[in-house]
Structures are given as structure tokens and as C-alpha cells.
Design goal:
eight-stranded parallel sheet, disordered N terminus, 366 residues, TIM Barrel, 12 strands, 16% strand, two-stranded parallel ribbon, globular, 2 domains, disordered C terminus
């Protein structure tokens, strides 16, 4: 088996912190250029969430870098348009379904959740570079302005009225220090980890409890919630009419599909698809798994997606995709962290996976 054939089966060879150290080194060594040539028949899918034009944020707002600065996004678009052919996700699905050809070094841009910054910050850049993108909406967020639980949590921790947060999550009684930015970031991560482990039906009540304990809620924010705000349907419709943006489902309430009972999961698909098609007058057959890690989707979710007329599904599993890829387990590269252009170039080239494949190949022959 050739090395480039094996790449898609393996994860990055190192953990996230080591990867952050290695990426600039690999960029300076120019190794990514050869990797990009070797992977030219594979499709790379870039993943984003939100965007920002602000050079700084209040407290721990956006401390994980989920909202990419517009300058970084423009740098990524410059990289993609220079070295790749950016195509709509639908073109990839159609090509791999029918056997029709794709251009070499095909790339896809995807944006999850449905933040308003997609329209206010990212969309002007997409128009500037004239590249398409697929946006995946959590329809309860957009349709009813129900903020995502991760944002509710970040806001509550950031604006808590006391220096200590005492709360019970499941069976865990937590007493969390909130005296400075570092302790607040640690508390946000600890709570996020605990909340992700809860059943879907319990999580929202737990977030309600955290907001009460913190004495604040993003729903009652006096200073504005711009970074957390959802798209409006008029903004979304304008982007769709431009021909640059296609819309897919990210469920209705941003649930992790594999943790739902089948009836609940089916309802999430049905409702989100119906809302998008009714509001925008377009076919919705693209899907993106919330969270999207292994274990967040399975054979049951795949069957439900097919039954509801979806043609593909995106994960957050690291890697690129060949023509033999499972259309309901498409891999992506997360460019929604504070990366510089060089780091993005290395990640998109597939060099990290090739290193892992080479290590495994050597281990087998040793």
C-alpha cells in the first residue's frame, strides 16, 4: 500500500501542543510543498465557526480562538486561492457520487453554527476573493435566538458577580475560582468538559443553574452580545442569493447525535431541514455533526441522515479526503484557531498525517 493511500486512515502523529510547536518548524523547512503535491488528488475541507474584526475582547471572551480574526481569514483565503481550487461542497459530493472529475488540489470552506459574524465579517472576504463556502446552521439558534450552550457558559463565567462559583454538575460538586482571567479560563474548560458528558436533556438545565450561580446570563447582557449573536434569515438569504454560500443543517438544537434517542435525533434532522428549506427556498441535503468527533456519529445516525434526504455529513476528525471517502464521515482541518498562514499551509498540505503514516509503516517493517 502506498504511503499517500494510507494517510486518510491515521490521525495527526502528535498531540495539539506538540503540533503547534512542529507546524512552524515544518513550514520553515518547506516540507509542506512536497506533501501538497503528493496529496493533489485529495480534497481538503477547511473548518471555521465564528469571526471577529476586534483586536481584543473583554475578559475571557473568545479565549479559545473560535472566532477567527478577519485578517487571518483573509490570509487563509489568499493561500487557498493561490494553491488550491476552492469548490462548493456540493460539487465534491456530486463528483464522488457520479464519478465525474474534480480539479486537482480541490478545497472546500465550511463554517459551523450560524454566527452573525459569518455575514458581517466573513462574507465580505468571501466576496473579495470570490470563493464559495458552505454554512451549517443550528436552526434553533438562528430561528429563535437560543444561544449556544458553550457561549452561555463562557459569558456566565466571564461576567460572574462573585470570585467563586459554586455549582453541582451531575454528581460533581464544584467550587471554582474566578479571581482572574487564568482561573476563569480554567473554570470554563472544566465546566465545558463536565457538561459535555451530560445527557442532552440535562445539559440545558445545568447551564441554567450555572447562570443562576454566576448571577448573569447572556440573555440579559447589558453590554451587548455581538460575538455570540446568530445570523438573521434576511442576512442568510442574501448570502445564498449571491451564489457563493450554500446552507446545510447542524441539527436544530446543536445536539450530539449519537447521544440522542433515535426519535429525538430524527426530529432534530427533520425540523432543521424543514426550517432551512422553508425560510430560504433551497434544498437542504448537506449536514454537519455537532462536536463531530468519533463517537458522536454512528450507523444509526448515518441511517437517519439517509432517510431524511441528506447526501453527506462533515465531522471534525482531522484529515483530508480521497475519492473513496465515506460521504457521511468527511474529515476537516480546523483553521478556526489563531493560526498564521504558514501553519495553515502545513496543516492543509497533509504533511502531519503523512508523518504518522510513515511512522506506522516503519513500525510494521521493523
Amino acid at each position: 500500500m502506498r504511503l499517500c493511500d494510507e494517510v486518510c486512515r491515521v490521525p495527526p502523529p502528535v498531540g495539539p501542543w506538540a503540533e503547534r510547536l512542529l507546524l512552524p518548524v515544518f513550514y520553515r523547512a518547506q516540507l509542506y510543498r512536497a506533501a501538497r503535491r503528493l496529496n493533489r488528488v485529495r480534497v481538503v475541507i477547511a473548518m471555521y465557526h465564528g469571526f471577529t474584526a476586534a483586536d481584543s475582547h473583554q475578559g475571557i471572551e473568545n479565549h479559545e480562538g473560535k472566532h477567527v480574526h478577519v485578517r487571518s481569514f483573509q490570509q487563509h483565503l489568499a493561500l487557498l486561492t493561490e494553491h488550491y481550487t476552492v469548490v462548493p461542497l456540493q460539487d465534491v459530493v456530486r463528483a464522488w457520487t457520479t464519478g465525474s472529475p474534480l480539479p486537482q488540489r480541490a478545497a472546500v470552506i465550511t463554517i459551523d453554527d450560524g454566527y452573525r459574524s459569518i455575514y458581517s465579517v466573513a462574507y465580505p472576504a468571501l466576496k473579495q476573493f470570490q470563493v464559495p463556502a458552505s454554512v451549517f446552521l443550528a436552526t434553533d439558534f438562528v430561528d429563535n435566538r437560543r444561544f449556544l450552550w458553550t457561549d452561555r457558559l463562557e459569558y456566565a463565567v466571564n461576567h460572574a458577580t462573585a470570585d467563586v462559583l459554586t455549582v453541582t454538575i451531575g454528581s460533581q460538586a464544584l467550587r471554582l475560582d474566578l479571581t482572574d482571567a487564568q482561573s476563569k479560563m480554567a473554570a470554563d474548560r472544566r465546566l465545558r468538559s463536565s457538561l459535555k458528558a451530560l445527557p442532552q436533556e440535562v445539559r440545558d438545565h445545568a447551564v441554567d443553574q450555572i447562570e443562576r450561580a454566576a448571577g448573569c446570563s447572556v440573555y440579559h447582557a447589558a453590554g451587548g452580545t455581538a460575538i455570540y449573536d446568530p445570523l438573521s434569515w434576511s442576512e442568510t438569504s442574501e448570502m445564498v442569493r449571491s451564489g457563493l454560500v450554500s446552507i446545510g443543517s447542524h441539527t436544530h438544537t446543536h445536539v450530539i447525535m449519537s447521544r440522542c434517542e433515535p426519535a429525538r435525533a430524527a426530529d432534530e434532522l427533520r425540523v432543521s431541514k424543514h426550517i432551512i428549506e422553508e425560510r430560504l427556498g433551497v434544498l437542504c441535503d448537506l449536514f454537519c455533526y455537532p462536536n463531530g468527533r468519533r463517537g458522536d456519529f454512528n450507523s444509526t445516525t448515518r441511517g437517519l441522515l439517509r432517510a431524511h434526504g441528506f447526501s453527506s455529513a462533515l465531522t471534525t476528525v482531522y484529515g483530508n479526503n480521497g475519492s473513496d471517502a465515506d460521504l457521511f464521515e468527511l474529515r476537516r482541518y480546523n483553521l478556526g484557531k489563531p493560526l498564521v498562514t504558514g501553519e495553515a499551509a502545513v496543516r492543509l498540505s497533509g504533511l502531519m498525517e503523512m508523518g504518522s503514516a510513515l511512522t506506522r509503516s516503519r513500525a510494521r517493517t521493523a
